[in-house]
Amino acid sequence: MAKVFTVIFYRATTDEAARAAYVELAGPAIVEAGGRVIARGLPLAVKEQGLDQRSLIIEWDSLEQALAVYQGEAYKAALEKLGSSAERDIRILEAVD
Question: What torsion do the CA atoms of 73, 76, 81, 83 make, to the nearest 10 degrees?
């Protein structure tokens, strides 16, 4: 299988401190699991029906890596910090050769 990408859109965040605490733990957990953050932040431009919302793209060498991070204890600890303070849309896509 080709590389895969996790694409995350933050639809809403009600507690920026909780999101920051999540990022502090999630970033190292993702890197340790083999993920590479290739883009993050607010969009530079929004077209058609796009929303001006915080986004993140993570590159993985395999689908197994992308899925395994969510089962790891380090990422679970990060999710506990986030709690219900963010509504996110997470998608995993296969890279095009």
Answer: -160
Distance between CA atoms of residues 42 and 11, nearest Å: 12
Instruction: Give the count of beta carbons closer than 10 Å to the beta carbon of residue 66.
Output: 22
Closest by CA to 29, choosing from 63, 91, 93, 79, is 79
Q: How far is CA 66 from CA 18, 34, 51, 91, in A?
A: 23, 8, 25, 10
pTM of this structure: 0.90
Which of 4, 26, 19, 5 has its CA nearest to residue 87? 19
User: E strand or H helix at 28, and its extent?
Assistant: helix 16-32
* Model pLDDT for residues 55-71, shown as the tens digit of each residue: 999 999 999 999 999 88
Q: Where are the beta strands (DSSP E) in the chain?
A: 4-13, 36-41, 55-60, 86-94
Best CA proximity match to 30, nearest among 66, 84, 63, 77 = 66
Tell me how far the alpha carbon of residue 60 is from its chain's centroid: 12
